[in-house]
Amino acid sequence: MSGTDDSLDLNEELLAIAQAFLARHESDVSVDDQVLFCRAVKHLQGIDVPLHLAERQVSHAYGILKSSHDRRRLDIAASSETVAVVTDPANGLTWAVPVGLIVKYVINSPSSRKLRLVEP
């Protein structure tokens, strides 16, 4: 087995651990998304996963968890570097959203929450 295969296996295993942790704790009433994210990162760090890798895998797992009940999907094949195409297969709708608008209204929005490890 090559080193690349080993790293893919490790990433898949860490992703599964992060997903399981998030799923177990997402219904805790006193836990908001930022706290849950931090706890999941700390959980991976507890098994000797470096911070950058823990944050990346928890971010991926968090995205999967939050979008799992949303029927809308990014149509990667129809999207380009400057336009994201979103589809809703249930009702047949499609939206073409310029990346500039995503940056302006989502990423650069003052209310935009960025999930990352926050030390108390």
Report on the structure:
This protein has 120 residues and is mostly helical. Helices cover 52% and strands 12% of the residues. It has two domains: 1-70; 71-109. The protein is built from four helices and three strands. The protein has a three-stranded antiparallel β-sheet. It is globular, with a radius of gyration of 17 Å. The N and C termini lie far apart (42 Å). This is Prophage PssSM-01.
Query: Which parts are unreliable, with pLDDT below 50 for 5 consecutive residues or more?
Result: none
Give the radius of gyration: 17 Å
Based on CA inertia axes, which overall geometry fits? globular
| Element-level helix/strand string | HHHEEEH
Mean pLDDT: 87
Class by SSE composition: mainly alpha
Give the structure's gist in a few sentences:
The chain is 52% helix and 12% strand. With 120 residues, it is mostly helical. The protein has a three-stranded antiparallel beta sheet with strand order 1-2-3.
Write the layout of secondary structure elements.
Layout: H1 3-25, H2 33-45, H3 51-67, E1 73-74, E2 83-88, E3 93-98, H4 99-107
Antiparallel strand pairs: 1-2, 2-3
Helix pairs in contact: 1-2, 1-3, 2-3
Protein name: Prophage PssSM-01
Organism: Pseudomonas frederiksbergensis
